[in-house]
């Protein structure tokens, strides 16, 4: 015979409350959230039995200091004696869902059967007076944090509903302060569809009177801009720039995405206020919108997502994924709509969040497709949106670096070429993506040497006239691997243009690196340099339209001519923001001294 015996687990309730308050709930404030949620669920349950039923909740605070008490009363479905034994007295058992609660969807917010325990964070006793709509006697349940409770039938019959009594426990006075309670009730219950009243200090007020009708039908918000922005400021605590109505196709999730009034770092945590069955469950929900929607802060309501036990997040499941996708789509569609009907408004939004929008568009093709017309670029036609640039119907060129852009901007502008500065962060990635996205677009990367293709050649006569001068300048710059071309080009104010092929650009960097490295490394770099072909030459175009260049090329003084050519070379390097080698700096220094000397001697 076996002497095996079966025992029941004993639960140390005060230990459990400790765990809940320290690890599950972010602050004792949540006791009001749990009470309001229970009242909401009870009202929903009664509404299911009687569709015309109108619910209400009244919170009353009496007494002061450690003698303060609070009651939270609803006219919801109430509890029978049997319900009390089953749900109030059994932790982890809820009237609102079946055994497979995680998976099952219900009309209620509560599902874990532990919420009421949060009241022990602020009270040493919870008293529940209740009358079920199903009839039976009115009941009283008194629970203590040590795990004991009493139940008794009341002699008087209450009207259907439930009233919860709490008595302030030592050090919990702030949680009973009328001001604090009012703020918390508004915080959690601003969107509740039935009146939530507070009575304290002889004053009664309805907390959620300002609840707007457009919140559940966000498309109505479009015509109520001022009201929507004012409501957003009240709930989110800062003035917002603009807003976008949100709604999923099944109508079970919606809200308003407010556009932040300042640009934000891409890595900032995006947190939104989410209302489940119109009760705030989280103001830190991060996973409800796509990653890229960092420029908005939302008020979102839903009746289809499932909160975790802490209520502060939602289960990451297929439903959440499709809600996230659809809300993202709402934002994209609205941005496109604004772009079509109110382009200046979209321009303002995009400019406010320009860098972040570009970063996002560089990673997300759909988003790029939505907003590319409104992205601004520096161009030889000024600071313009891509849409404006397209409207010009010109071939679009872009550079890869800011230096390349600076180097050729004057020349390209003088020749009416449309060149975009691709050098700033994200710009050339975006332009390269756009050329794939819009294959019909005539767009090409521009190298500084390409602009020289449109330069005007010298006449035969001029070529003969300046033959010796060109040879002399070529010789003077040979040690810098730079060849000379004498051309005519606009603008006439520009004396010389320095261009560098990709290969010679690498060679320049190599030579600069050689100067700064140890002997061994320098010899390795030196060997590398010899592998570059002869084409690794840069070109300095002198502009014969420029009066100074004309003077220099017509000067009979060889020494002065050579020095002037070298000075124009170093000047062109400076203008193009190229790092100069020690040799080039030396030439610049010596040239300056020579010119000062010549200047002074000619005045003497
Ligand atoms: N105001 C109320 N009216 C009617 N029944 C209530 C009320 N408050 C609590 N109850 C009953 O007490 C049970 C336990 O409530 P509790 O808040 O602990 O858990 P829950 O709401 O079911 O789930 P959760 O832990 O997710 O909030 C509920 O399931 C419900 O049956």
TrEMBL record:
It comes from the Bacteria. Keywords: ATP-binding, Chaperone, Nucleotide-binding. Gene3D superfamilies: 3.30.230.80, Histidine kinase-like ATPase, C-terminal domain. GO terms for molecular function: ATP binding; ATP hydrolysis activity; ATP-dependent protein folding chaperone; unfolded protein binding. The keyword Nucleotide-binding applies. ATP binds at residues 34, 38, 74, 162. Belongs to the heat shock protein 90 family. This is Molecular chaperone HtpG. It comes from Paenibacillus algorifonticola. The lineage of its organism: Bacteria, Bacillati, Bacillota, Bacilli, Bacillales.
């Amino acid at each position: 015979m076996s002497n095996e015996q079966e025992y029941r687990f004993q639960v140390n309730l005060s230990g459990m409350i400790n765990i809940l308050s320290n690890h599950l709930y972010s602050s004792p404030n949540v006791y009001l959230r749990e009470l309001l949620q229970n009242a909401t669920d009870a009202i929903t349950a009664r509404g299911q039995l009687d569709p015309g039923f109108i619910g209400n909740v009244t919170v009353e605070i009496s007494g002061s200091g450690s003698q303060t008490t609070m009651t939270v009363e609803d006219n919801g479905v109430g509890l029978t004696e049997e319900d009390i034994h089953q749900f109030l007295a059994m932790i982890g058992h809820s009237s609102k869902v079946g055994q497979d609660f995680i998976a099952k969807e219900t009309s209620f917010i509560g599902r874990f059967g532990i919420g009421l325990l949060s009241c022990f964070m602020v009270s040493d006793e919870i008293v529940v007076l209740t009358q079920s709509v199903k009839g039976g006697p009115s009941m009283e349940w008194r629970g203590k944090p040590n795990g004991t409770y009493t139940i008794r039938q009341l002699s008087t019959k209450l009207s259907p509903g439930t009233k919860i009594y709490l008595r302030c426990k030592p050090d919990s006075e702030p949680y009973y302060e009328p001001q604090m309670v009012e703020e918390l009730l508004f915080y959690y219950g601003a969107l509740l569809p039935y009146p939530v009243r507070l009575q304290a200090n002889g004053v009664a007020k309805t907390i959620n009177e300002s609840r707007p009708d457009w919140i559940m039908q966000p498309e109505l918000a479009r015509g109520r801009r001022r009201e929507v922005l004012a409501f957003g400021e009240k709930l989110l605590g800062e003035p917002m720039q603009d807003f976008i109505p949100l709604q999923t196709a099944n109508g079970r999730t919606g809200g308003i995405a407010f556009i932040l009034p300042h640009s934000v770092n891409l890595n900032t945590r995006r947190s939104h206020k989410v209302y489940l069955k119109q009760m705030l469950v989280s103001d830190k929900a991060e996973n409800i919108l796509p990653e890229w929607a960092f420029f908005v802060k939302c008020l979102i309501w839903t009746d289809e997502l499932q909160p975790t036990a802490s209520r502060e997040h939602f289960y990451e499941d297929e439903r959440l994924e499709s809600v996230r996708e659809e809300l993202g789509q709402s934002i994209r569609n609205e941005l496109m709509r604004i772009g079509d009907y109110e382009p200046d408004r979209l321009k303002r939004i995009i400019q406010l969040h320009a860098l972040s929008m570009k970063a996002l568009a560089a990673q997300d093709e759909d988003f790029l497709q939505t907003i590319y017309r409104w992205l601004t670029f520096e161009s030889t036609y000024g600071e313009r949106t891509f849409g404006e640039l397209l409207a010009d119907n010109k071939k679009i060129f872009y550079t890869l670096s800011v230096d390349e852009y600076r180097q050729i901007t004057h020349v390209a502008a003088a020749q009416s070429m449309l060149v975009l500065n691709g050098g700033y962060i994200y710009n050339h990635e975006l332009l390269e993506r756009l050329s794939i996205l819009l294959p019909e677009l005539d767009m090409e990367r521009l190298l500084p040497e390409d602009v020289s293709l449109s330069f005007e050649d010298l006449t035969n006569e001029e070529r003969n006239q300046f033959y010796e001068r060109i040879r002399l300048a070529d010789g003077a710059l040979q040690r810098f691997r730079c060849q000379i071309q004498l051309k005519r080009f606009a603008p006439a104010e520009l004396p010389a243009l320095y261009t560098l092929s990709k290969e010679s650009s690498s060679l320049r960097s190599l030579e600069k690196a050689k100067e700064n490295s140890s002997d061994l490394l320098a010899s390795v770099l030196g060997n590398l340099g010899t592998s570059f072909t002869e084409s690794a030459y840069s070109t300095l175009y002198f502009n014969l339209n420029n009066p100074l260049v004309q003077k220099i090329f017509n000067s009979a003084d060889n020494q002065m001519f050579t020095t002037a050519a070298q000075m124009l070379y170093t000047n062109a390097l400076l203008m193009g923001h190229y790092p100069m080698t020690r040799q080039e700096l030396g030439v610049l220094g010596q040239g300056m001294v020579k010119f000062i000397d010549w200047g002074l001697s000619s005045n003497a």
